[in-house]
Amino acid sequence: MMTLRAVLRSILTLYFLVAVSACAHAQSGKADYQPQVGQDGKDVIWVPTPQALVDRMLDIAKVTPKDYVIDLGSGDGRTVITAAKRGVKALGIEYNPDMVELSKRNAAKEGVSERASFMKADLFETDFSEATVITMFLLPDINIRLRPKILNLKTGTRIVSNSFTMGDWSADDTVVVKDGCVSYCTAYLWIVPAKVEGAWSLGDGELSLKQTYQMIAGSLRRGGKAVPIANGKLHGDQITFNAGGSVYLGRVSGNSMEGTISSGGNWQASRSGK
Ligand SMILES: C[S@@+](CC[C@H](N)C(=O)[O-])C[C@H]1O[C@@H](n2cnc3c(N)ncnc32)[C@H](O)[C@@H]1O
Fold this sequence. Notes:
Layout: H1 4-28, H2 51-60, E1 68-72, H3 78-85, E2 89-94, H4 97-109, E3 116-120, E4 133-136, H5 140-151, E5 158-162, E6 173-176, E7 186-191, E8 198-201, E9 205-212, E10 215-222, E11 225-235, E12 238-243, E13 246-253, E14 256-261, E15 266-271
Parallel strand pairs: 1-2, 1-4, 2-3, 4-5
Antiparallel strand pairs: 5-7, 6-7, 8-9, 8-15, 9-10, 10-11, 11-12, 12-13, 13-14, 14-15
Helix pairs in contact: 2-3
The chain binds S-adenosylmethionine.
């Protein structure tokens, strides 16, 4: 026969165990939380990017372990976890706290918690300027809202979007995945271009540039003769244009740029401030 004291001790022990387990449960989120495709999100519903496309998105961004990948609206964490499995530090910004906890558990299961982190935050109110690669699967109007912020990221930052474009900023690359992907199988890549709009002095000439995202137009005046620029393009900090029958290749670094001319020799320019 149990004494009254023993019965009370058992009840208290049981109560304590239940309380500890409830507390652990609350801290780690619902361990059995199952997200539903199409469930509401703050600005976009949750639909996961097919794994085959996640892989291609990281491929076309040419992600390496030197990168820092940030997924805007990271869902169940798959893009961040895939990047982390490639040895890359990655962060997911996700508004839904259950998805954040689920992502953390998924990262732990894959053994990449050290490189894969997740924060419960609104992507519109979070600073993602440290990223070298941004991934996203949002909506066209959200991409356009984010575009000014994206264009101000470090030159050369790569942006990869599942299925949705960026308005009149045309993509630098597009891939469509056919194997292992049924819907939402297109990835678009943009590379944040250097800012080159304006007047540049070439020593013996003047370069006048108009910039629309990564496309450039304008004219080159050398030896008293101005010629229009054709096929002008920026690829991050790499600039190329044709002028006067020569191809100019170069690299932009802040207020200067320099490179080679196909007809021979080098060129150098600095902002003239005109
Ligand atoms: C279409 S899902 C994409 C999920 C994941 N990036 C992927 O590709 O599998 C969009 C995600 O964005 C999240 N989301 C919506 N609005 C958000 C906001 N303002 N800030 C952060 N996350 C948001 C949703 O909860 C959802 O998980």
